[in-house]
Amino acid sequence: MGEMRAGIVPVTPFQQNCTILFDEATKRGVVVDPGGDVETLTKVIAENGLTIEAIWLTHGHLDHAGGAMELKEALGVDIIGPHEADAPLLARIADQARNYGIEGLANCTPDRYLAEGEKVSFGEHEFEVLHCPGHAPGHVVYYNRAASFAHVGDVLFAGSIGRTDLPGGDHDTLIRSIKEKLLPLGDEIGFICGHGPGGRFGDERRNNPFLV
């Protein structure tokens, strides 16, 4: 087994961080949150000689899941996640996209929903599933204990937190998710988020104005 690597491909007008996690030695991995621009994603995958085993979703918003069904068809892999509480959001992606004037995004039906405490993996890289509602009811975070790394989607950002004014959002619930599920994992945990640069939990615990 090689080291785990991450490549970020910004997609959709929202510049969402579609993330490709892969093993450096085997070139096998997963795509996290393919919100759109699937042609670009498949090109990046091919150019880097990667074999994608699955698509993982953190939550059901259009910029994170709008390209999942198209990428599933292109790669012949399953869509895993998020928590089933986001099923209503996944069923309204196409309508939401039209409201934003975005073409080509589709409603999504995952092959498997996830729940707190489950584990997912590619190769020997294992991730724990944390259900972290607040930004979206079914939002999940993928935590790799061995690598001290988490993909937090839109729960937490560098210097900010996910918005809670969208359907199903709740500010108090989001803060609890961060303080009870994420920060206790440790200050050293590095994270990739859904938009913008990532960081470390310790820096957010000490400096994030929404958490201090």
What structural category characterises the helix and strand content? alpha+beta
Kindly report the average pLDDT value.
97
Tell me the number of structural domains.
Answer: 1
CATH topology: Metallo-beta-lactamase, Chain A
User: What do we call the CATH homologous superfamily?
Assistant: Ribonuclease Z/Hydroxyacylglutathione hydrolase-like
| String of helices and strands | EEEHEHHEHHEEEEEEHEEH
Q: What gap, in angstroms, lies between the N and C termini?
A: 39 Å
Overall geometry comes to globular
User: How many DSSP H or I helices?
Assistant: 7
| Annotated CATH architecture | 4-Layer Sandwich
Return Rg in Å: 16 Å
Text of the CATH class: Alpha Beta
Helicity, in percent?
10-25%
Sequence stretches where pLDDT stays below 50 over 5 or more residues: none
Q: Name the beta content range.
A: 25-35%
Strand order of the largest sheet: 6-7-8-9-12-13
Number of strands: 13
The largest pleated sheet is described as: 6 strands, mixed
